[in-house]
Specification:
Helix content: 25-40%
Bound molecules: (3R)-3-hydroxy-3-methyl-5-(phosphonooxy)pentanoic acid
Structural class: alpha+beta
CATH class of the largest domain: Alpha Beta
Number of helices: 8
CATH architecture of the largest domain: 2-Layer Sandwich
Shape: globular
Largest sheet: 5 strands, mixed
Strand order of the largest sheet: 1-6-9-7-8
Order of helices and strands: EEEEEEEEHEHHEEEHHHHEEHE
CATH topology of the largest domain: Ribosomal Protein S5, domain 2
Strand content: 15-25%
Number of domains: 2
Oligomer: single chain
Number of strands: 15
Radius of gyration: 21 Å
Length: about 350
């Protein structure tokens, strides 16, 4: 039997950056060349659920992602496991009576599932690593700053440990202790804000973020300028417009930052193409829509893939969804798929 079986289940939501992280100054510790800012989605929408069991009778650490066993020796996974175990032992040594002394040395079995298709390339690693680190911390009784641990799984994961509007401060130190996420405003600060995800392609991304960033840092002059000059200003401005709940400024800045990120991908040598024709049509549609009204009612942003994430306010959402359905007419197979373009609305309130 499984003596001493301890088990914890937690969930972590996806986050979508409005000021993008692209480029590392330290690839082992995952330290970025610029700060970034994102919005964490509501728990009930796009999320990872992770269950971790821990028992004396387990022979080795093991992990299953969406039901399929994966290689536990993955370096990033190992960084997170080692770091949490180290923090748990440290806590035990400082004599905290509430920390569970016995189970830290036991092996763990990790089961992680997404409630959205991993293949859709929707920042699954961010929710995944945030959830892994948080669930481990609950199991081993580790408290405090966890974003520096989640960051070592996947950079963007550190932002999913907080709800609402979250900044990841790049930090200055070489040990990464000050490269952490911080909440700017909570999820209830701007309840009218909505996120609409337009799945353009469910295919895996062509160039992963790790190798893409590596090549960009080595070859793109534009990325140097972006990280040193543009992003520091934009971070300040983005925080200001969020605090003012100024959607027009928020939307414009979000689109500009997405565009500059993809411009640095084109400036990378050899170039990286994440956007496809449908992505470009969505960009044009958004600009035509905003131009028609003479104000920024909707904004797009794209990560390392062709899928569009639309930010808008609740009052504009129904009409914009109709416009999208009109230009990407529905196929026979129901409301969810719009000519290979599943529309999924995620509200933040
Ligand atoms: O954390 P990673 O390695 O999956 O990189 C994420 C990079 C972007 O999604 C493109 C931008 C961001 O800030 O999330």
């Amino acid at each position: 039997g499984h003596q001493n079986l301890a088990m914890v289940t937690c969930t972590a939501p996806v986050n979508i950056a409005v000021i993008k992280y692209w480029g590392k100054r330290d690839e082992d510790l995952i330290l970025p060349i610029n700060s970034s800012l994102s919005v964490t989605l509501h728990q009930e929408q796009l999320k990872t659920m992770t269950t971790i069991a821990c028992s004396r009778s387990f022979q080795q650490d093991r992990i299953w992602l969406n039901g399929k066993e994966e290689d536990i020796s993955c370096p990033r996974l190992q960084s997170c496991l080692q770091e949490i175990r180290r923090l748990a032992r440290k806590r035990r040594n400082t004599g905290d009576p509430t920390s569970d002394v016995s189970i830290v040395s036991n092996k763990v079995h990790i089961c992680s599932v997404n409630n959205f298709p991993t293949a859709a390339g929707l920042a699954s690693s961010a929710a995944g690593y945030a959830c892994l680190v948080y669930t481990l911390s609950q199991l081993f009784g580790v408290e405090g700053e966890l974003s520096a641990v989640a960051r070592q799984g996947s950079g963007s994961a550190c932002r999913s440990l907080y709800g609402g509007f979250v900044q990841w401060k790049m930090g200055e130190w070489s040990d990464g202790k000050d490269s952490i996420a911080e909440q700017v405003e909570s999820e209830s600060y701007w309840p009218e804000l909505r996120v609409l995800i337009l799945v353009v392609s469910a295919e895996q991304k062509s160039v992963g973020s790790t190798s893409g960033m590596h090549t960009s840092v080595k070859t793109s002059q534009l990325l140097k300028y972006r990280a040193s000059v543009v992003v520091p200003c934009r971070m300040e401005e983005m925080i200001r417009v969020i605090r003012q709940r100024d959607f027009q400024a928020f939307g414009e800045l979000t689109m500009k930052d997405s565009n500059q990120f993809h411009a640095t991908c084109l400036d990378t040598y050899p170039p990286i193409f994440y956007l496809n024709n449908v992505s470009h049509r969505i960009i044009s549609l958004v600009h035509r829509y905003n131009q028609y009204y003479g104000e920024t009612k909707v904004a797009y942003t794209f990560d390392a893939g062709p899928n569009a994430v639309i930010y808008t306010l609740q009052e504009h959402l129904p009409e914009f969804v109709q416009v999208v359905r009109h230009f990407f007419p529905s196929e026979a197979n129901g409301s969810e798929f719009v000519r290979g373009l599943p529309v999924c609305s995620a509200d933040l309130s």
